[in-house]
Design a protein that fits this description.
alpha+beta, Immunoglobulin-like, 8-stranded antiparallel sheet, 2 helices, 13 strands, elongated
């Protein structure tokens, strides 16, 4: 008669911790492998993005002010004369250029305004959104107006001083957001600020005729 080896419940209990330890170790190995794979994929993605960026080397768009004209500039004093209110009218033409040979640019929510002696003298005017292909140039025209905008009491004396010197120096600022396009890939939005400073010849002066700058001014662009 053959004797069978039958394990008692005590033996089973003794072996249970060994099986549990093996299970946890296997789970830890799987979890560790998953995070290593994820880290490798993430590193590879960053490397690809860096290589694409280094190869394409995107350059920020360039702007120039082709023409600026002032058609109206007048002050009215408040009562009591604690401040003055300005009415103004400008016409501008910009040239926007994309210097990149492999990158397109989407221009979103561009706005422009005029300022003088650190004071904003027109409201904001928006350009319609547009796309600019590789190496492309676009003309952007805008009409700026200011209606009863409060300015400092010394504003009139500053304009009179510039009239004597024969030059009116005005700053035009453009702000908005752009996106880069490579093939079908489009980046997120980047904030852009453009600043143009131009000196207008008073000549006979307002209201005899508009003050116009036709020589063009190079603008600075920051991202």
């Amino acid at each position: 008669m053959t004797q069978l080896d039958i394990e008692s419940p005590k033996h089973c209990t003794a072996k249970q911790p060994h099986n549990s330890h093996h299970h946890h170790r296997h789970s830890f190995i799987n979890s560790s492998s998953f995070w290593k794979l994820l880290s490798t994929l993430f590193s590879a993605l960053l490397t690809v993005i860096l290589l694409v960026w280094l190869v394409l080397r995107p350059s920020k768009p360039s702007f120039s002010l082709q023409q600026a004209s002032v058609y109206h500039l007048s002050l009215s004093d408040s009562v009591p004369a604690a401040a003055s209110f300005l009415n103004s009218s400008f016409q501008l033409t910009f040239v926007a250029s994309n210097p990149n040979s492999r990158l397109g640019i989407y221009y979103d929510s561009l706005r422009v305004y005029a300022s003088y002696q650190g004071q904003q003298i027109t409201g904001l005017t928006s350009f319609p959104p547009f796309y600019q292909d590789h190496g492309e140039k676009n003309l952007l025209s805008a009409s700026l107006t200011g209606s009863n905008l409060p300015v400092a009491p010394y504003f009139g004396s500053e304009v009179a001083r510039d009239q004597v010197s024969g030059k009116l120096t005005v700053r035009f600022a453009v702000d908005g957001r752009i996106r880069w396009k490579v093939g079908k890939w489009v980046s997120g939005k980047y904030r852009m600020n453009v600043e143009c400073i131009t000196a207008m010849d008073f000549g006979r002066g307002l209201p005899a005729g508009p003050l116009t700058s036709q020589q063009g001014s190079r603008c600075s662009t920051t991202l």
